[in-house]
Amino acid sequence: MTRYVYAFAEGGREMADLLGGKGANLAEMTRLGLPVPPGFTVTTGACREYLATGAEPEELGAQVADALAELERRVGRGLGGRDNPLLLSVRSGSKFSMPGMMETILDIGLGDESVLALAKATGRERSAWDSYRRLLQMYGRTVLGIAPELFDRHGPTDDPAQLVEDYKKVIRDATGEEFPQEPAEQLYRAIRAVFRSWNSERARLYRSREHIPDDLGTAVNIQVMVFGNLGPDSGTGVAFTRDPATGARGVYGDYLPDAQGEDVVAGIRNAVPLAELDRLDPTSYRQLVAHMATLEHQYRDLCDIEFTVEHGTLWMLQTRVGKRTAEAAFRIAEALVDEKVIDEDEALTRVGGAQLARLMFPRFEAHADTKPLAHGVPASPGAAVGAIVFDSAEAVRRAATGDEVILVRRETTPDDLPGMVAAEAVLTSRGGKTSHAAVVARGMGKVCVCGAEELTVDVRARTLTAPDRTVLAEGTVISVDGTAGTVHLGALPLADSPVGRFLDTGERDGVLTDAVARTLQHADSVRRLGVHANADTPEDAARARRYGAEGIGLCRTEHMFLGERRGLVEAMILAEDEIGRHAALDALLPLQRADFTGILAAMDGLPVTIRLIDPPLNEFLPDRTELAVRVATHPTVRDRRLLTAVERMHESNPMLGLRGVRLGLVVPGLVEMQVRAIAEAVVERLRVGGDPRAEIMVPLVGTVEELRIVRETAERVLAEVSDASGFTVHCPIGTMIELPRAALTAGRIAEAADFFSFGTNDLTQTAWGLSRDDAEASFFPAYLAQGIFAASPFETLDRDGVGRLVRIAVEEGRATKPGLKIGVCGEHGGDPDSIHFFHDTGLDYVSCSPFRVPAARLEAGRAAL
Ligand code: PEP
Ligand code: MG
Asked: How far is CA 133 from each of CA 123, 140, 261, 437, 833, rounded to the nearest angstrom?
């Protein structure tokens, strides 16, 4: 016979699968001898069966009846009895905490007669009626599915007994049945209602977001009610074994005298600090502190606790490993190591990369919560305050005079780079986490909120209009929260980040930075994955190195073709003859060589993977419409020629057009120029005794033939530079795998590649057929809300689809070339969840923007445990 019911005394915290988290913890406290109001748990198995078949298991009724009889015998009272009636709470509790997502029904057992008995037994008539009123309300809503408003329509009244009559009528009118006076019926129906609440819309949505499997089901905890609202010698509270905000040791919490638990949760009355209980009821306080020590010892972690004091008797109602801030997580984990409670491996499991990332940036002070002007995609974390400007030139101009500015655009293009560098933050109304603004801002560690579609950006009128129609002119000060994805009017107060300072300078200033340093050191000692950075400038490279990067996994050379160099690129692409093109390429060569020399110097002794140019063409050519207007109004020969050329090269879908390796194959001399610049930079570094480790990476390859041709050219140029310089220039030549075809033919491609690096941004874009620039802001919100995506596939790697392509490419690439070095340099390289996947898939390294390097080190360490 399957057991569906366990008394608290029969379980333990290792039984969370069966008893749910709450039930397992109640059992644990009971086993430890703590004063837990007695009760029993109906298992998740019973719920699963109910959900699968629409009926509870046959044996359940009898098992609940037995458990109830035993409970009544134990406490010497009858459920809903006429003399000091026993009342029960019925609460959901799944394996993973789903706060507030499922149902709770309190005061089961009350009815027209027992309410009088309760009033008599407690001497509190009003509270007895109020409890009955609450039962009717919860039961009506949860068990009978009556709209909650029907119970809220009744305003506050002085007479809860009258409200009871009103609510009974609501139930009668809505269902045609009377509220059941039979306590057992109330109980059974409440249990079923809790089962059903597993599949409520909000519970399903919560699970999809939190990656909680849908098939676990909830347990149901049935427990003797105790009352904290029976006078000054009663009360209720919550307690933490350490401060969940800072992690400091000590006893923290709130106490509410003469009140019930819901009053605390609902914030109906002001609580007093827990220490006050010591004054009010020293015996209960001392017991509570002792129980807290017992629990922390048992759980080896911060516990949070709910308790009630009923006429001077302390009851423990709930405990669990407590939620905490990022700061507290690091401090507590390392404190527990010092206290010899856990080891460093376990400490590493107690923190996460997302928490570290949160600690790295300045943030708005906690009390600075103002209502946001608008919401967008939290694309690059941190907090910034500044005056809004609408173009790059204005950003540069104002910043040069010492102003702090926020660059506001509909979306950014490579042309905006100087403005992005000058600004404190970037705000766009379009685009998602892999839009240009997001990727570039993240790379620079700039705050960025993008895709704030509620905002209207009018660059011509130089105004920003908020959804409430507030119109902000250029120069208006706003605050941008890149962690929360919000925009606020005015200057919110900023708090500095000691962890950010530590990671940048190595300066430790207290317990928190010590804890972060130790955790990272341990992560580095256990991780197998290398952590490289995506960086395009010597400054970014140097910063990445300070943050612990072990190389550059992606240097995007197209980022070096911007600003004043754009004219040269334009000339190169549009050149009508060899002479013009060579002139443009010759002018670019020394500039590129200097770029590479700087980066190789900053990363001396470490690999630097330089990717050949990969621009969507539109980003490098003048805007067709603007040019057409110019030609129509002030025609010049140059502009006319330019327009003809731009029209000739116009593409409706540049992301799938002449970019990546394709550009190198159709623009003669381009690959030669870039490879020569790399090779000559290597020689320059060798000449001064450096240890340059340049690698050449070819983007957007779809077939091995493309790679073969580029490789031949590159090898020829490397040989020429070697001959001419007298230094042997050796650069491994590899490819990005960022098209499904490349992944599926990786076995062939590996024949011509010294390494692979997954470009998961493009691989996601092309595998899903989703535009990385548009999709996040357009329909992703609807997809997330409907649970089709648990997270954006541009943020967290889609393991089933894109991940499968990655696995195939790793397997087939290494079948051709055992030991082939493989990394990833798409944005997923810095995403905690994806890093675990890359570890499991056998990649050699991940590469991410410099500011994500510390979190990536941490996650790579966790993945290795
Ligand atoms: C990618 O596609 O994942 C990648 C790293 O290249 P980019 O973002 O420059 O297209
Ligand atoms: Mg790409």
From this structure: 18, 11, 16, 55, 47
CATH fold, domain 362-496, is Glucose Oxidase; domain 1 (3.50.30)
Residue 598 Cα to ligand 1 middle (Å): 23
Q: Which superfamily is assigned to 527-615+659-864 in CATH? A: Phosphoenolpyruvate-binding domains (3.20.20.60)
Q: Which residues are catalytic?
A: 436, 825
pLDDT band for 268, please (50, 70, 90 cuts): low
Nearest CA to ligand 1 atom 4: 759
Q: Check pocket membership of 762 for ligand 1, CB cut-off 6 A.
A: yes
User: pLDDT grade, residue 571 (50/70/90)?
Assistant: confident
The ipTM (two decimal places) reads: 0.99
In the prediction, which pLDDT does 741 show?
98
Alpha-carbon gap, residue 188 to 522, rounded angstroms? 52
Which atom of ligand 1 lies closest to the CA of 554?
Answer: 5
- Distances in whole angstroms, Cα of residue 651 to Cα of each of 309, 572, 612, 656, 771: 73, 18, 21, 9, 15
- Specify the CATH number for 235-324; select among 3.30.390.10, 3.30.470.20, 3.40.50.620, 3.90.79.10: 3.30.470.20
User: What is the residue-wise DSSP string for 474-516?
Assistant: TT-EEEEETTTTEEEES-PPEE--HHHHHHHH----SHHHHHH
Q: When comparing pLDDT for 490 and 443, which is higher? A: 490
Taking residues 567-577, what's their average pLDDT? 81
Kindly tell me if the per-residue pLDDT of 415 is higher than 80.
no
pLDDT at 261: 74
Task: List, in order, residues 6 or more apart from 672 with CB less than 8 Å away.
Answer: 585, 713, 717
Domain ranges of the chain: 5-224, 235-324, 362-496, 527-615+659-864
Q: How far apart are CA 141 and CA 123, in angstroms?
A: 29
What CATH number should be reported for the domain whose range is 5-224? 3.30.1490.20
Alpha carbon of 699 to ligand 2 centroid (Å): 7
Cβ neighbours, 10 Å, residue 207: 21
Cα 672 to averaged position of ligand 2 atoms, centre (Å):
21
Cα separation of 620 and 569, whole Å?
7
- 262 has pLDDT over 80: no
Spatial contact of 486 and 372, defined as CB atoms under 8 Å apart: yes
Under the banding of pLDDT at 50, 70 and 90, the label for residue 358 is confident
pLDDT at residue 153, as a whole number:
62
**Percentage of the residues of the chain whose pLDDT score is greater than 70:** 97
The verdict on the CB of residue 848 being under 6 Å from ligand 1 is: no
Q: Quick check: helix, strand or coil at residue 603?
A: coil
Between 162-176, 393-407, 609-623, 759-773, the lowest mean confidence (pLDDT) is in 609-623
